């Protein structure tokens, strides 16, 4: 079990809605900058080249935000669904889909309870930089629900913050015991060690196909994971 489970922490996930309202009012492209969106799009495109990743079918983006990555996948032929706790983000995602004449199913909801979706429903599940926002035992719920709605042989892809803390501003908020950033008593990000995150996925039932740490000297390292619901051959 991950060391982050050793203490209870306060969360405020719906607080993301205020951040989305602020960004939308300022005319920003979404949660991330255009540059960061393009970087993540490239990461996703690279993951799609992996032999085991389905080249079509139903895809669910967890924490879809303003919908950019879901719409990238729609343009590539996937049937895309996106879920986010923020009503503002979902409204924004629907606006973008309409503007681009693309069809996607965006819904307000909790990634901890995917009750709208049946078991074994999706060919591909994308963590839209959501997992590192999920704290404590909620992470078990997140991964359990993702596992439940993923088809046998389907693929779960995640890019999530990990590793040692180098940024002085992050260090000011970082609690080494929980490995969370905590502001005003509320935990907002979990920056786990790679081996702990990998163990979380294994405990949820996933079989790891590949995982690697992508270092970033200017920010936080990312752990990129491709996992499945059955025993495919591990690539790395």
Describe this protein with a few key phrases:
disordered C terminus; 25% strand; 10 strands; 32% helix; 3-stranded antiparallel sheet; Rossmann fold; single chain; globular
Describe the structure.
The protein has 236 residues and is α/β, with parallel strands linked by helices. It has a single domain (3-48, 55-228), classed as 3-Layer(aba) Sandwich (Rossmann fold), CATH 3.40.50.150. It is built from seven helices and ten strands. The chain has helices spanning 15-25, 34-48, 68-75, 87-99, 138-149, 168-173, 194-203, and strands at 58-62, 79-84, 105-108, 122-127, 150-161, 174-175, 180-183, 186-190, 207-214, 222-228. Helix 1 crosses helix 4 (87-99). The chain is globular, with a radius of gyration of 17 Å. Residues 232-236 have low confidence and may be disordered.
As a percent range, the share of strand residues is 25-35%
Give the class-level CATH name.
Answer: Alpha Beta
Task: Kindly give the count of domains.
Answer: 1
Strand order of the largest sheet: 3-2-1-4-5-10-9
Give the helix tally.
Answer: 7
Largest sheet: 7 strands, mixed
* Gyration radius from CA atoms, angstroms: 17 Å
Could you tell me how far the N terminus lies from the C terminus, measured between alpha carbons in angstroms?
23 Å
Series of secondary-structure elements, N-terminal to C-terminal: HHEHEHEEHEHEEEHEE
The whole-number mean of residue pLDDT values reads 93
Question: Can you tell me the overall shape?
Answer: globular
CATH architecture: 3-Layer(aba) Sandwich
Supply the CATH superfamily name: Vaccinia Virus protein VP39
């Amino acid at each position: 079990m991950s060391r982050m489970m050793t203490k209870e922490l306060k969360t405020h996930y719906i607080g993301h809605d205020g951040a989305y309202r602020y960004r939308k009012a300022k005319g920003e492209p979404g949660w991330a900058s255009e540059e960061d969106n393009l970087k993540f799009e490239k990461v996703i495109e690279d993951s799609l080249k992996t032999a085991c990743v389905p080249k079509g079918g139903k895809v669910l983006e967890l924490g879809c935000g303003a919908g950019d990555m879901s719409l990238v996948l729609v343009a590539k032929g996937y049937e895309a669904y996106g879920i986010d706790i923020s009503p503002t983000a979902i409204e924004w995602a629907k606006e973008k889909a309409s503007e681009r004449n693309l069809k996607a199913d965006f819904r307000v909801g909790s990634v901890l309870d995917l009750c709208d979706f049946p078991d074994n429903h999706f060919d591909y599940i994308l963590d839209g930089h959501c997992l590192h926002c999920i704290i404590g035992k909620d992470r078990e719920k997140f991964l359990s629900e993702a596992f439940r709605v993923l088809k046998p042989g389907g693929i779960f892809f995640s890019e999530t913050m990990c590793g040692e803390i180098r940024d002085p501003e992050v260090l000011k908020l970082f609690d080494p015991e929980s490995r969370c950033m905590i502001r005003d008593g509320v935990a907002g990000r979990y920056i786990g060690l790679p081996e702990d995150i990998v163990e979380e996925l294994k405990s949820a039932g996933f079989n790891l196909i590949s995982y690697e740490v992508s270092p970033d000297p200017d920010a936080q390292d990312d752990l990129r994971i491709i996992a499945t619901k059955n025993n495919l051959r591990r690539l790395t």
